[in-house]
Amino acid sequence: MHHQEYSFVDLFAGIGGLRLAFEGAGGQCIFTSEWNRFAQATYHANFDCSGHALAGDITRIPADAVPPHDLLLAGFPCQPFSLAGVGTRNKLGQKHGFADATQGTLFFEIARMLGYHRPKAFLLENVKNLIHHDAGKTFATIRDVLEKQLGYHVQYRVLNANGLVPQNRNRVFIIGFRERTAFDLSALQIRYPATLPTVGDILLPARQVPALFTLSDGYFAWVRQQAARNRARGNGFTTRYLSPQDTMPALIASYGSDRAFFIKQRGKNPRRLTPRECARAMGFPDEFAIVVSKTQAYRQFGNSVVVPLVAQIAAAMRPHLSQVTAWPFALYNPRHDRDALSCPADAVPAAVLAGGGCRAETLPAV
Questions:
Q1: Were both Cys, which of 28, 46, 291, 306 would link to 161 (CB 3.0–4.6 Å)?
Q2: Burial class, 341, CB count within 10 angstroms (exposed 0-12 / middle 13-18 / buried 19+)
Q3: Three-state secondary-structure class, residue 265
Q4: Is 78 annotated in the active site?
């Protein structure tokens, strides 16, 4: 049992990657919110939630139903902002970013909790493309809310987990403290192992890999046909076949149906990674229980964080949390519904505004 120095809430918790990292850095989780029932099953299988309920849809949770806390963690949905997600939505004629009324506006639920509880600090995680989405307007709105409206001292940095795990995975981490501290995210030096990990480090022994992960002859032929067609069109996409000494591309939620990469096998067709290998690729320990189907497991690990990377960020934040004074919560009584926030009029879809979302008003020039 780790000494518990501070409390935190785990919003958009997924399968608990952020929690795993911060519990290892002296934190105690006192509230969890995750709406997906399959992710909830995995979360329950791996964490003790006897001290608090695992709440569902954050949009239905009043701010005063969440206990006061020192730190807010949230890996809010990335699909509306990711390159893959934006590309798919554009092809289907669907909205993305803040215009995605289902997932794109969930950032404002984080702001709602921050505005009511005023925790000492927060850590948010998302895809690298969040910074550049909509020519930077999306990220500018996020920073405006966090810095100007909520008064946090915010830093952000894109970090690649390659070197800690054998995949190229760039993610942006947004960290804010309610008071100025000496914490400097830009100066954080990630500690890497002496020998950098490769794909071979996460692979199970061949005898432990069920045959169902090997591509059938028909599917393998189709994959090669698609690759040849793409090369002829010059669109740049090609399937990669990885050897043990290689580094893999970023694991994505659709890996179960994606054809970005496969693992070479001697004397056989290539295969997909198993869910356990995906867990290892994200830095989860082997004792982490996988209790869902492989399709759901691929989605869960593809949406999660690289635990050892977040663990180093958590260790760096740890001493600075004690430097921030506890908020006199009993003396603070703002309106804690979404109207407590003022957001740029074009930041949230009209449907959300009409439904009681952020109040639409033009912010004064700063």
A1: 306
A2: buried
A3: strand
A4: yes
